Amino acid sequence: MTAIVWFRRDLRLHDNPTLTRALAEHALVVPVFCLDQRLLAGRHRSAPRAAFMRECLEELDRNLRAAGSRLVVADETPALALPRLARSLQAEAVYAAADISPFARRRDRAIARALEASGSQLILGPGTFAVDDLSAIATGGGTPYTVFTPFYRRWLALPRRAVQGAPPSLPQPPAQLGSSELPRLGVLPPQAPFVAGERAARARMLAFTGTDAGGYREHHDDLGQPHASGLSAYLHFGCVSARELESLLPADDDGEAARRQLCWRDFYAHVLLHNPGNARAEQQLQLRGKIEWNRSMPLFDAWREGRTGYPLVDAAMRELRDTGYMHNRARLVVGSFLVKDMGIDWRWGERWFMRTLLDGDEASNNGNWQWIASVGVDPQPPSRRMFNPVLQQQRFDPTGRYVRRHVPELRSVPDTYLAEPWTMPADVQRTAGCIIGEDYPEPVLDHAQARREAIARYERARLA
Ligand SMILES: Cc1cc2nc3c(=O)[nH]c(=O)nc-3n(C[C@H](O)[C@H](O)[C@H](O)COP(=O)(O)OP(=O)(O)OC[C@H]3O[C@@H](n4cnc5c(N)ncnc54)[C@H](O)[C@@H]3O)c2cc1C
């Protein structure tokens, strides 16, 4: 009785219900990972994320070996590798954690057919989200949710499966079963803040749920001294399970605030599952294809490279480039700046984030970009989700710690001018060693004017 466990983005041994179930139902369980070029070179390709994933896989292999097994790497698409392996191992089933993206669902349907034709079957189960089955969540009217708060209330009330430990020992795959070498994949950002793999992920999760969540409710938006968990990349690759993280959150206000935030991950997965067209187009039919976007490459480059002249935007974009991470508050500000102030298509920002983020995740990224562009579920007037980068900096980075960390040319600019360095008198610029227009750019646009133009742009689209 043999089964294959097909690891995808559940690269862990703890609380891995796919692995536990396969072990309970089969004497021999063979862990497999397929290097799928469609993902590595496709539209969501990312050098930092590929490098991070590779390190997660290396550690998964080490952990499997410590338990008596090993990771079999197939350098082929799963459609070729899995039926071949299933035939040669005479495996009755391939187990995997269900996923929701349009690509993942198409792929899994094709694999299920291919396995069936070779006498095996694909068994999908929970493990990717905090709740087991996002497709089963529905409003009283039986429709999918489009508003977060009622989804959250329903989500909180759903039963949860028990968290499972790591299996103490695993059966050994047949010695003659070959495995490809893991090739070099991608390049990590120069200051990647996270060590890949389950071990570091668990240490971070246990620290966060032990003591570090203290102050999360009040301070998770602070940029200077972040109180956020830094778990998103680990959650994306499944180095920790969202279910286990949720189970460990303290039963206090901070734990409650973190649980609500974690629910956004399930919410956007639920949204994409039910609206696969969102992967490429606006959820709001009224606005779909109607907004006249600015196609200015110089403006887009200034945004990507952190040269807009707005310190908070520039700090955040350089944080992304240097670390592969960006704080949530900063993501909101740079998203609003790109889409509303610059008038650039939200998909350009979405794509850049997918290229650069270690936690780049189709559902969370798409849902948040559509939110900030006011084109997604639960739409609000565009002006409500338009952030003033100066006020945001004064509120969430009042001491300038975040901005000075990422924009060194502003290091000696006095606090009074740090959010609007273009207002510095000439002598202050000289003393601070920061001449505007030479050492640091003039602002690429005027926020107040850009705001008026954005409101007019959306209004035209609404009436078109
Ligand atoms: C424009 C934009 C794009 C984004 N793209 C991504 C993305 O590609 N991948 C991604 O994981 N998150 C994305 N987010 C959501 C959020 O910014 C990150 O999840 C968060 O900053 C990760 O840091 P953390 O783990 O320290 O968060 P914490 O504050 O510690 O939150 C804990 C966990 O809750 C989840 N979470 C928190 N906020 C959100 C949210 N708004 N939406 C969905 N899940 C959330 C994440 O899994 C996160 O790890 C995006 C947000 C914006 C505004």
Shape: globular
Strand order of the largest sheet: 3-2-1-4-5
Low-confidence runs: none
N→C terminal distance: 62 Å
Structure, explained:
- The chain is mainly alpha-helical.
- The protein folds into three domains: 2-128, HUPs (Rossmann fold, 3-Layer(aba) Sandwich), CATH 3.40.50.620; 130-161 and 195-274, Serine Threonine Protein Phosphatase 5, Tetratricopeptide repeat (Alpha Horseshoe), CATH 1.25.40; 297-463, DNA Cyclobutane Dipyrimidine Photolyase, subunit A, domain 3 (Orthogonal Bundle).
- The chain contains 21 helices and five strands.
- It has a five-stranded parallel β-sheet with strand order 3-2-1-4-5, sandwiched between helices.
- Strand 4 (91-97), helix 5 and strand 5 (121-125) form a beta-alpha-beta unit.
- The radius of gyration is 24 Å and the shape is globular.
- The mean pLDDT is 96.
- Bound molecules: flavin-adenine dinucleotide.
Write the layout of secondary structure elements.
Blueprint: E1 2-6, H1 17-25, E2 28-34, H2 37-40, H3 47-66, E3 72-74, H4 78-89, E4 91-97, H5 102-117, E5 121-125, H6 148-157, H7 198-212, H8 216-219, H9 232-237, H10 242-248, H11 253-274, H12 297-305, H13 311-323, H14 328-341, H15 346-356, H16 362-372, H17 389-396, H18 401-406, H19 415-418, H20 426-432, H21 447-463
Parallel strand pairs: 1-2, 1-4, 2-3, 4-5
Helix pairs in contact: 4-5, 6-11, 11-16, 13-14, 15-16
